[in-house]
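Please go through the sequence and fold tokens given here and tell me how the chain folds. Record follows.
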Amino acid sequence: MQTTSRANAFDFLRLAAAVMVLIHHAVIHLDASFLWHSKDAGPWFHGGVSLFFILSGFLIIRSAEKCHREARPWRDFYRNRALRIVPALYAYFAVTVVFLLATGALTFKSLLSLDFAIFAGSNLFLAPVYSPGSLGDFGIGVLNGSLWTIPVEVSFYVVVPLLVILAARVGWNRALVAAGALAAGALAIYGLTGGADASAMAWKLFGVTFLPFLWYFVIGIFWSRYWDKVRQSGWFALVCTAAYFVIINLPQNGGSGIGAIMTGLAALPLSYAAIWFGYNAPRAFRGITDRIGDLSFGTYIWHMIVVNTLVAVGARNWDVPGTVLVTGVLVGSMLIAAASWNFVEKPALGRKNYSSSLVSRNPVSVG
């Protein structure tokens, strides 16, 4: 099965989200500035993960609906999802281990340790959130903390068919009301109890499931179903963009828990602006990913390896402008992502049983 180009800019938006995450992490961990932005200048590039999850809800629900509508077995849906994530993640793990051995950050003896076995298992079972203690002196001490979103995304994939089946029985209005209530409740609980600051293992595990982030997925699903039923305005999209940055930069004196809730609220205007842009972006934006490939996932999973390597070689002390340093992270990450796309991801996606490409605004006719 051949992949086809898309008549929209959603692939570009996913790449933009990955770049936002990259800039956010590079600025923080390299103690650098990027253009007007510094680590103390507010969360200007903080919305990448929110945008990822919104777009995931928007696009993945269509793939699931198409699978259900065509009476395909759900294993076809899960096979498509696995082909999108597993080959790239496994290649990342294998290449990273070889790289760490070559640089001396890992030793061959450490490969036989329980610590490494847990690290390998977390990657192979799609929950790459464990960083070996043996790598505590490499870079920032955590190999790739940004991969916590992988188990969140995978767990969302698990429940998507259940939502589609529920909607087929009770209707999308009722299904989304139920999902939205659950999502708002989970976000509030996670935020008001401290969320990521909680030290209990139960909360840590809760934080890498879809539940605290279901809010973002549901927003995307809502627009997938009802975009054609609302007024679509470029001016309103611009206002929503401004509203997002106002909300996300409000003082968050309640700590990271309140910050999580504010980020959730900011996702509402962000979602409208993103979906409008996805459908109405100039052709130049739509063609970028057709020319260079879909580098969003590769850029996302590889950028912290680039950042950690730079930290390990002392880049924080280099007499290099921060914008140049962060741009170097971007270029390096995207070059690796291009290799991942052309040699791993694109060939794997060519083995999908059915296409989930978004080719229309009509939720009934696409998947």
Observations:
- The chain is about 65% helix and 0% strand.
- Residues 1-5, 359-367 have pLDDT under 50 and may be disordered.
